Amino acid sequence: AQSVAQPEDQVNVAEGNPLTVKCTYSVSGNPYLFWYVQYPNRGLQFLLKYITGDNLVKGSYGFEAEFNKSQTSFHLKKPSALVSDSALYFCAVRVSSGGYNKLIFGAGTRLAVHP
Amino acid sequence: GAVVSQHPSRVICKSGTSVKIECRSLDFQATTMFWYRQFPKQSLMLMATSNEGSKATYEQGVEKDKFLINHASLTLSTLTVTSAHPEDSSFYICSGVRESVNGYTFGSGTRLTVV
Description:
The complex is a heterodimer. Chain A is mainly beta. Chain A has strands spanning 3-5, 10-14, 19-21, 24-26, 33-38, 44-50, 56-58, 64-68, 73-78, 87-97, 100-105, 109-114. The radius of gyration of chain A is 14 Å and the shape is globular. Chain B is mainly β. In chain B, the strands form 2 sheets. In chain B, strands 2, 4, 5, 6, 9, 10 and 11 form a 7-stranded mixed beta sheet that branches. Chain B is globular, with a radius of gyration of 13 Å. Chains A and B meet through strand 6 and strand 11 of A and strand 5, strand 9 and strand 10 of B.
C-alpha cells in the first residue's frame, strides 16, 4: 500500500538551532512528495515539493528538504529555527487512484521552537 | 499564487440540520477538488474527490448521502453535511488542483460544531 510516515509526533528545538522533521514514504514508481505547514484553525500552506531533478529542494520561509531514494525519505530541514516556525507539519505523497492524482498525508509532526 | 477561498470558517448548527461549505478557486480553474476531514491533533483524511460536471467519488467508509458534494463550475465546489450529528463535528478542508504544475492549494478550513 502507498503511504507516508512521520515517525515523530513532536519535535522540540531551540530558536537559532537547526531543525529536521522526518518523513519516509512507500509508493510505487517515482514519488511526488510535498511538505505543508498548518497553523491552528487554518488550512495548509505549501512549503515545497519534489517532482524530479535535484535531490535538495528549497522552499518557502527558508525551509528545504532532501529527497533520498535509497532511504525512501524526504526530511524537512531549516538551518536556523524561529519561534514563529512552531506549527504542525505534514508530509504528503501523490498517489494515483480512481483516475485522480490524490495527496495522501502523514500523521503530522508538531514543531515547537523555544526561545 | 493560486488561492482557494473556503467559507464559512466557523459554523455551529443544531443536530438534524444541514450545513453547506463552499470552496472557490479565485485565480485558477479547479477541474478537480478534494475534500478532507481533520480530527483534533490528527492528520487529514480524504473524504471525496469532486470533479466538475460529474458525480463525486467517495473514499471507502464515507457516506455519500450524508456528505453531498456538488461541483457545478470550474471554480466552485460545495460540501453539504446533511442531518448533522455531534459526531460530524470536525475541521473540513478543501483543496483545488492544478494538474499542469502539480499544485494542490488548500482552503483555510471550516470548523463545524454540531450541538
